Here is the input.
Amino acid sequence: MRNVVIRCFFCGSLTFGICAALLFLCFHYYHVSKWQEQTREGTSVLFLDEKLQQPISRGSWETPTPHASVQRPNEDETKEQRPLLKLNKDFNYTDLEAVHGYLKYGFNVVISKSLGKERHVPDTRNKMCRTKHYPARLPTASIIICFHNEEFNALFRTVSSVMMLTPHRILEEIILVDDMSEFDDLKGKLDYHLEIFRGKIKLIRTKKREGLIRARLIGASRASGEVLVFLDSHCEVNKVWLEPLLAAIREDHRMVVCPLIDVIDYMTLEYQPSPVVRGAFNWYLQFKWDNVFSYEVEGPEGPTRPIRSPVMAGGIFAMKRHYFNELGQYDKGMNFWGGENLELSLRIWMCGGQLFILPCSRVGHINKQHNVDQTRVIRAVIYNNLRLVHVWLDEYKEQVFLRRPSLRSIPYGNISERVELRKQLGCKSFQWYLETVFPELEASNGSR
Ligand code: UDP
Ligand code: MN
Here is the structure.
């Protein structure tokens, strides 16, 4: 009898356990597919026109596709709705840790944990880069890494790759700005593990959530290196990544340079080389990777030649600290995240600077899938983009409004300081930018 009771109890518990697990899985499936469905349909969170839902991109998380298939922005692309969670067919839905991690961080956390706090990545540079020499005397760099609720190992690999692959004489410091993260492992545990880099690391914690733009400004205000280098908190730098950037800035203090962004796959975390591309955008103000012209990769330097770029991607770049300040840093009136990369790029070109991508400097970036608060992000991107439209686009702002008429009546705060800055810096017109830097962005009544 006792045996029967025990058996019944055992079977009951087992059935209950299986049911609970199944229920949990169903909940996640429902959650994920609902999420994908919503984003595919273009949620009406803001009750604005359909196209307002689209510009959720600062660029660096888009995968630069192989050279031949890099597309120019076209209408189809702008109509496309990017699903927030692109779950791979091979994704193991029964691995609850993986599903959870994916929803929390936007990439494969199980693999990230298994890779741990540091790893070696393949040298993806063109062979010709290995023979390049850089001056012995280079300016020093402060590396600024802001993070909000980042996965511990991905954040740590960002720091340890910089520590491993940067000569210490040019590395002034790494400034970590914790933008009010909530996760426990980013508190005491992070402090504890960063101890081994003591002397080179400054960790600043903001008192409220500032958003990427203001968090970067906080980091920059604490920097003492001659050059500021901004990185995301899920990057891994490659061999000799910093020297080309610093050498270019040493030659010309108004030169702003970006590494070529390699892709760390969000699903496998494999480090993959990117083709040589340049940054572009369309009249929806969406960032795109674009083809480089063949003459730019021909000639003696071949594919190692610096690429003139109309805009920078999400914001992995190096710039002389004094020049960053002189040029007006970032627009402090911008909120949270988005649009700041286009604004800074236009300001650089129109106000006497230059922006180049250096293919011999490589930094990997996890193209993580955004699962943040959509409404907040969309609002911020629209607000920030409108600020840049009204400050920088002159009569060409009509090209934007033509395509998105509802933007005309949306508030964008006070821009008088930024308009004044433009005057003080004696910046050129947007027409000059179009003619000289980015003639491919044609003004028309079409849809580009
Ligand atoms: N970030 C931040 N505060 C925010 C939002 C983002 O500090 O409110 C950090 C984030 O952790 C990351 C960097 O800013 O290190 C860039 O954000 P993200 O990777 O989401 O941008 P993307 O790569 O998509 O352009
Ligand atoms: Mn990123």
Observations:
- The pocket of uridine-5'-diphosphate (ligand 1) is lined by residues 58, 60-61, 146-148, 150, 179, 211-212, 215, 232-233, 314, 336-337 (CB under 6 Å).
- DSSP finds 15 helices and twelve strands in the chain.
